[in-house]
Amino acid sequence: MTEDVPRTTGSDAFLSVRDLRVRFSTEDGIVKAVDGLSFDVERGKTLGIVGESGSGKSVTNLTVLGLHNPDTSTIEGSINLDGQELLTASERELQKLRGNKMAMIFQDPLTAMSPYYTVGRQLSEPYMKHRGASKKEAKDRAVQMLEKVGIPQPKLRFDDYPHQFSGGMRQRAMIAMALMCDPELLIADEPTTALDVTVQAQILDLLKDLQQEFGSAIIFITHDLGVIANMADDIMVMYGGRAMERGTVREVLHTPRHPYTWGLLSSMPRLDSDVDIALEPIPGTPPSLLNPPTGCRFSPRCVFKDQVAGDLCTTVTPELGEGRDTACHLTSAQKQSIFIDKIQPRLR
């Protein structure tokens, strides 16, 4: 395995997140949902964030949008969007940015869209608010966007309610809503989870086409590595509220270096593999973020921690550096040896 050249970060970043920490107050205690997360997203590029449920993916991106309740959450660090610090921005400033400069495609459009208003009204109102457009101008723009995302007879469907759309059409309408004001940052939170494979492929192709047209930076959240392989330029693997590995799509999927990434890839079925080869699930369960493990968050489930000298894995938290890196105490030589001998044969 050859050593990958780290990508530069920071200077070209449209979104820069540094040492982000998000904690929630609950009846059971403090939930450390995100703990020291840093990443960049460049203009016109897609960052894929992958990991199991509860790893902090959605919490991170809701924090970017400023959608957490300040009475029950504590947020520290820095989120810089095109030179503007979001964590110190007022609610009024954030409202000007949401739906305008940054937008989100939610996982379930049926619950994200209001059942009491027509699809057309829900598309038009943000455009009138952010762009000062007239009702007619907003309707024309909404019909244009519905047509662009592939909704048949958009003028007629403009007055339909969300329940009158199929699942795939609602997701397309949600994408149209997010793109109404040409946002420079688009966050897609598992936008194809509930869709069948054919519609899923159509939605992914649509997002790629629209990104080329509008030049948006995209954060794509998913647990499906197959999806991310076709969508992202870079990948960040999250576990237990922390980043485990980061690199380009090719680096992370072809030469993964972290035991958690190895586990994700080894447990993923492949169409071109021998049907007799058994999948290897990751042992154990994700950690409780009320009382996360000391040291490496993944150490209780890691089958390679006995190769690390002493008790580093359970006492010292490994840090993720800039560019191509992993948060792991295994040495580079150990990672290379394990990957070549045990992991790479499974991925062929």
From TrEMBL:
<dbReference type="InterPro" id="IPR027417">
    <property type="entry name" value="P-loop_NTPase"/>
</dbReference>
<dbReference type="GO" id="GO:0005524">
    <property type="term" value="F:ATP binding"/>
</dbReference>
<dbReference type="Pfam" id="PF08352">
    <property type="entry name" value="oligo_HPY"/>
</dbReference>
<keyword id="KW-0472">Membrane</keyword>
<keyword id="KW-0067">ATP-binding</keyword>
<feature type="domain" description="ABC transporter">
    <location>
        <begin position="17"/>
        <end position="265"/>
    </location>
</feature>
<keyword id="KW-1003">Cell membrane</keyword>
<keyword id="KW-0547">Nucleotide-binding</keyword>
<dbReference type="InterPro" id="IPR013563">
    <property type="entry name" value="Oligopep_ABC_C"/>
</dbReference>
<dbReference type="InterPro" id="IPR017871">
    <property type="entry name" value="ABC_transporter-like_CS"/>
</dbReference>
<dbReference type="InterPro" id="IPR050388">
    <property type="entry name" value="ABC_Ni/Peptide_Import"/>
</dbReference>
<keyword id="KW-0813">Transport</keyword>
<dbReference type="InterPro" id="IPR003593">
    <property type="entry name" value="AAA+_ATPase"/>
</dbReference>
<dbReference type="Pfam" id="PF00005">
    <property type="entry name" value="ABC_tran"/>
</dbReference>
<dbReference type="InterPro" id="IPR003439">
    <property type="entry name" value="ABC_transporter-like_ATP-bd"/>
</dbReference>
<protein>
    <submittedName>
        <fullName>ABC transporter ATP-binding protein</fullName>
    </submittedName>
</protein>
<comment type="similarity">
    <text>Belongs to the ABC transporter superfamily.</text>
</comment>
